[in-house]
Amino acid sequence: MRAERRGSTAALFGSELLTLFRRRRTVALLAALALIPVLIGVAIRLAGDAGSGRGPAFLDQITNNGLFVGVTAIIVAIPLFLPLTIGVVAGDTIAGEASHGTLRYLLIAPAGRLRLLAVKYLSAGVFCLAASLTVVVVGTLVGWALFPIGPVTLLSGSTVSVGEGLLRLLGIAAYVCVSLLGLSAIGLFLSTLTTVPVGAMAATAILAVVAQIIGALPQLDWLHPWLFSEHWLGFADLLRDPVQWASFADNALLQAGYILVFGALACGRFLTKDILS
Amino acid sequence: MRDQSSRTQNSTASRTFSRWIPAIVAPIVIGVGVILVPMQATAAVDLPDKTPAELVQFAAESPAQPLSGTIEQRSELGLPDLSGLTGALGGAGGDGSSAPAAASSADLEQLLSLALGSHTARVYLDGPNARLQVLDPLAERNVYRNADGVWIYDSAEKAATHITVDQAAVEALKAELQTGHADAGAGAEMPTPEAMLDQALARLDESTAVTVGTDALVAGRAAYELVLTPRDSGTLVGQISVAIDGQTGTALAASVTARGADTPAFSIAFTDVTFAAPDPAVFAFTPPAGTAVTEKPIPVPTAAELQQAKAEAGSGDAGSVDSAAKPVLHGTGWTTVVELPAGALGAPASGPLDTVTQPVDGGRVLTTSLVTVLFTSDGRAFAGAVDVATLQAAASAPAASSGR
Amino acid sequence: MTGFAIETAGLSKRFRAQMAVDGIDLAVPSGSVFGFLGPNGSGKTTTIRMLLGLVAASSGSARVLGTDMPRGVGSVLPRVGALVEGPAFLPFLSGAANLRRFDAADRSAGGRSRPARVADALDRVGLSHAADKKVHAYSLGMKQRLGLANALLVPRDLLVLDEPTNGLDPQGTREVRNLIRSLAGDGTTVFVSSHLLAEVEQICTHVGVMRAGRLVTQGTLDDFRSTGAVSVRLQTPDVADARAVLARLGLTVDAPAGTPARAGGPADATRLVTARLDATPPEAVVAALVAAGVRVRGFEAAHASLEQRFVELTGEGFDVVQ
Ligand SMILES: Nc1ncnc2c1ncn2[C@@H]1O[C@H](COP(=O)(O)OP(=O)(O)OP(=O)(O)O)[C@@H](O)[C@H]1O
Ligand SMILES: [Mg+2]
To answer: Which residues of chain B make contact with A49, given a CB cutoff of 8 A?
Structure first.
């Protein structure tokens, strides 16, 4: 009985993932993200080195080493594009089903409210991973195709092999994925508040921008450690020698806090909500 | 039936409430965690009592430990943007736009921001090897010290500076000094370290109250607190506090608080520390390809040069050309004012310097919470941990002008 | 199964100031086909939402298949197929994919037999050919059929169908009618809300009528109809004589004058006279009419139509109450 239950939750999760990734909108979001490293790679290939000190960090390294296309693309994508796509997916989780009216049919199937919420959040998490991997992997492929690939110079000035460089890129993708989980939890909660998915999506994306604006204001620095965007650029710690795992751990802890609080809020709201759509 | 309906109503309400419980509990748990963890960190610790003298001796005598740790440096000096200032000073110091001048300006800026800025850094120490790894956002500054000399590497600039000291010359100098001054050394009675310390403390006591504060946890370790309070109320410095590890005698934290302020204007502290030899690989540095490397050998003076310099300093030869650029000290202790004669800084830099200073009687002044700098109209500069009035007094004092 | 498939006690739902459902005591016998009637906005869908645990009752309680709702949602709903306020699907998925999704949401439905179940359900509603078509390309009736297929994915003990024939073609309507009959024949309880009284009359064994959030009546269909008065419909050219005879017998004659069966006809054209038959047996009326020489061309004594009963109970006004 237990095994059967667990099996079916996996089935629901699988069906949710299938629904998410077969959807044209999801594919378009990922394609838009993939466009970032492509544009960066092509622009640098055509226009040549921008010269050090201009543009995002690592931009000037690309001509020497194509592996930095992915890193540069992440830096470009993290303030706006990634939160935007996460906002779309996380804001749509419950509100999208409600607006289609399918929420009531999922619940009388019965999917179970808590189970549905968990599956929805997990699939948003998978999207976070897919989004960050898309940027990093496409960036690496573009860099590989357009530029020489070689041992990677780290921020500390030491150099690691291509293999380790690739591993660190995967680490960055994992870091960025973790960074976005808190925002996903916020999106999930906002999604339980409304039956208009665009509202939840916009609210999530706006919150991401607001958090970063607050993060840039020194007058509010007492608030900074509490912002989910506080460690977003901390993935650079994976490019140091030795690797500074402390920021990875701090970030994970912070995001876990957000997941806990907003997950609990989403539960409270969704488990008591009247489904009237 | 009325009964049943009211009962179900109650149970519905309580179920509704119970589903909000996690949402109420989660922030409380996190809040309690956030309050409790630092409380644990500041939990009362009790180390065996030491007098200030014992504590200073303990710290001084403890051998340097191999360690690795994270330090946080926080600076609220109220300094304006340093880049403009150092650019102005560096540019003024050199003769225009020559390459060495630009390099030294960059170096000065780098060192100033390393020393006075706010940042988080990793520190590795193992015998003669040391490394300071400043974790900047998306960049990194490193100072490596190893058998190869000292390397300063800035990932943002992609520039490395290699500072080398001719080891052979140093050895030669040492040998020469030993032979040359063997007689001089033999004549003087060698004081014991204790005696020297006592003497130093006694001298310190004239200007400063040295006390042992409350023991505290720093970076998770029980530490003594040594508190230095200037007796002279003329200084801007209110208090200096140093945390000394109760086990190894290593300084774990230091902070300087301005007079009348509650929070330190400058603090540096380990947030975590491990007393174990770090992996030797962390000290190794080879400039990566594409890095601009500046070689900076430090000249080692010969014994004769050293002797001459000493003699000049001793005689206080005002006629010497060099001495015009040498700093002059006014006053003693905490209210000491350093005077840089006009030659040292060149003409008063206009432009960038003006933006960070305010005009006062007799020049322009740069104020921070701990240090004040006065640039007089005639090109001299006065600096000290004192207020503007004290600097102005020093500037107008006849002794200062007679020094020139 | 015995007893009641659905039982509510004082079930109420308040939306802000408005009582959408106001203390209803529904009793739907197991095995019945229960027609749930009521004008627009009378609270039918809201009741169904409460029964299915989608909406929390403001007060009162509901038991479905012997289990308290909404506590029993997890154990009861797998045995309940439902169509609530029209079908709803993700438009960018095919019909079959939508069904697989809802089926995967059901914990009690095993994964191995899922494709077979989905194919079966689609076949039952005649959608096999459109199974792989995206739902946004479905017509209104096709969506309705797909909604029914979803309700029929697994064998159910109770079907809750909110306006199941909405948008269906005549064949579809007849199919649904037959489907409900055959399901009811297998012992499934069907709780169906509808505005099509002719439909209800054909398939239901029981009815309940809502009006402005209150359940104004419920019972078997026969009881429902027989509680209304029997009326006679007489077709005759001798309107005045007939009215006199009927009045003499103590019947309440409708309308001041007989309605012409065919307007503008000849003087002896057949006209319709209606009257309420109270205790008088119909045969006595016919005998009296014949004895009085009234030319009886047609005579019918029947219970009031369901529609008449419905209007009687819920009022004539066209405006939505509240
Ligand atoms: N989400 C809502 N918020 C406020 N009032 C609502 C909501 N949903 C329904 N109502 C009100 O509840 C009452 C009952 O609505 P319900 O949908 O149950 O009617 P119904 O009997 O199903 O009508 P129809 O025959 O048109 O489907 C209506 O007056 C409606 O205005
Ligand atoms: Mg309805």
So the answer is: none
